[in-house]
């Protein structure tokens, strides 16, 4: 497979970079975190989206090594940020099955000096579908380290409310498909309201993804959503550029 070879080469050559997209607290109106989003600068094809190469990295097992690089690099970057700014890292279901994940996380925290409570792991619900008991045990193990755990892309795929009962996530990320039509008549505002209410009743916060307009932002605030993420505030940017946003009002 050509792409597998290129991915291996990129890991050796430093062909990957991480861009950081701000997470904005809707009440305090400030940046309280950033999501680490992987980018691949391909020598011939230019920037390639993770939507294209992460599935290949998962199929080949390369995601374990690549994910460890993301974790270590993102933690080192975040250690230079103000204390109130957390770092959110996406963890693939393949990484979650790796028995040394907890060790790698502890090691990335120690190497960077980042406090565990400033690291948030974003996990998709696919993890919980495949292997319930093992997945839950691993999530509890990670929680014991002191990191926060977010349920990513909530509401897409095979979402079930029972996952929220079986594991106490710190945060639910509401998928952008519910945000894009939220201001329309018969749009998703009632669904978002329901998710916000469930989250609040179980001490979880909510982050709305893909917020692009002022109207969406104001409605999400009114619905009680905790955080937002999206082009309205900022796209993902390289570290030196994103840090300039930490002091400013969104
Ligand atoms: O950044 P956006 O451009 O296109 O990301 C597309 C998809 O890739 C998203 O679903 C995102 O969660 C995923 N993604 C981005 N960075 C990482 C990463 O470091 N690890 C994993 N597993 N997925 C990532
Ligand atoms: O799946 P995950 O949520 O981890 O990845 C975030 C994805 O959403 C990335 O591909 C990122 O580039 C994209 N994204 C971030 N903000 C916006 C936005 O405001 N609108 C749209 N359409 N996509 C966004
Ligand atoms: Mn994510
Ligand atoms: Na998401």
UniProtKB/TrEMBL annotation:
Residues 1-250 form the EAL domain. One of its GO terms (molecular function) is cyclic-guanylate-specific phosphodiesterase activity. Keywords: Membrane, Transmembrane, Transmembrane helix. GO terms for biological process: cellular response to nitric oxide. This is EAL domain-containing protein. The lineage of its organism: Bacteria, Pseudomonadati, Pseudomonadota, Alphaproteobacteria, Hyphomicrobiales. The chain holds residues 778 to 1027 of 1034 of the full protein.
């Amino acid at each position: 497979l050509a792409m597998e070879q290129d991915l291996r080469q990129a890991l050796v050559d430093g062909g990957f970079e991480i861009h950081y997209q701000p997470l904005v607290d809707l009440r305090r109106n400030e940046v309280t975190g950033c999501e680490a989003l992987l980018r691949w600068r391909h020598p011939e094809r230019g920037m390639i989206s993770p939507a294209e190469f992460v599935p290949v990295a998962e199929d080949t097992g390369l995601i374990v090594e690549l994910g460890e690089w993301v974790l270590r690099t993102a933690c080192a970057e975040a250690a230079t940020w103000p204390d109130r700014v957390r770092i959110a890292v996406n963890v693939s279901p393949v990484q979650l099955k790796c028995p040394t994940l907890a060790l790698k996380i502890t090691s990335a925290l120690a190497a960077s000096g980042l406090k565990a409570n400033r690291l948030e792991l974003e996990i998709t619900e696919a993890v919980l579908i495949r292997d319930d008991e093992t997945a839950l045990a691993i999530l509890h193990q990670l929680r014991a380290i002191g990191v926060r755990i977010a349920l990513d892309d909530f509401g897409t795929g095979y979402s079930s409310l029972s996952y929220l009962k079986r594991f106490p996530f710190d945060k639910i990320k509401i998928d952008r498909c519910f945000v894009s039509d939220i201001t329309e008549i018969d749009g998703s505002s009632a669904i978002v309201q329901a998710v916000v209410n469930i989250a609040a009743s179980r001490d979880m916060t909510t982050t709305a993804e893909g917020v692009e307009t002022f109207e969406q932002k104001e409605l999400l605030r009114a619905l009680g959503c905790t955080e937002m993420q999206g082009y309205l505030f900022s796209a993902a940017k390289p570290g030196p550029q994103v840090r300039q946003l930490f002091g400013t009002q969104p």
